[in-house]
Amino acid sequence: MMVGTAVIKLYAPWVHSLKEKRMEVKKLIERAKNKFNISIAEVEEMDLHQSIVIGIACVANNNKQVNSILNEAINFIETNTEAELVDISVEIY
Question: How far apart are CA 66 and CA 59, in angstroms?
């Protein structure tokens, strides 16, 4: 059994309130949950308006499958938001 985690940092310059940020984050998280078999949540910088940090975790049988799931989820998030991708950190155990 392999476990994979990813932390995705996004920058959303058009967001001017926490309410706008919550709407964007909630939309991204719900879409990703529905499309992939992953655990996903906002994990850091929840009080900063323009910074979005999302954590993803998944479990699979082998390293290749975990890597594939995480890459597909990251690509999905990147293409389904106007926010700029700042940093990605992926770890597989």
Answer: 7
Which pLDDT tens digit goes with each residue over 31-70? 999 999 899 999 998 889 899 999 999 999 999 999 999 9
Structure tokens at 56: 């993803």
Percentage of residues in the chain with pLDDT exceeding 70? 100
- Sorted by where each starts, the structural domains of the chain and their CATH numbers stand as 2-92 (3.30.70.1120)
The whole-model pTM stands at 0.90
Which residues does 2 contact at the CB level (< 8 Å), separation at least 6?
59, 60, 61, 62, 63, 65, 66, 92, 93
- Starting at the edge strand found earlier in the chain, the sheet holding 2-11 runs 39-44, 51-60, 2-11, 84-92
